[in-house]
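One chain given next:
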Amino acid sequence: MAMTTPPPELTLDAAVDEAAALSAAACLFHGFSDGSRLAIVRHLALGEHRVVDLTEHLELAQSTVSKHLACLRDCGLVTSRPQGRASIFSLTHPAATLDLLAAAERLLGLTGDAVALCPVYGLEAKS
């Protein structure tokens, strides 16, 4: 049985779809790339919080917490609802987010210090 080559437009469509998926994944990981955002996400995994609660628990400035929550909300990772004059923040998809964080911890355990020592993104990398 002879194999047929797919029409060029199908191959191009698949490449465009793959590029779009990779781009979206890169954007997702960028949402988690800041230590403060990651701390906020991990704290929201414990349950809903107001900005004031997060500033107290994480010892971050209110402006820092608000800025990172806006980024996380724009990425679709957190949601908020009003409660009086405050907003209550929570993870949009808590189970999936916890799965991702658990997978990251497993991968970090396997790579050891390699990520921290990376000359481009590691702890000593030049900004």
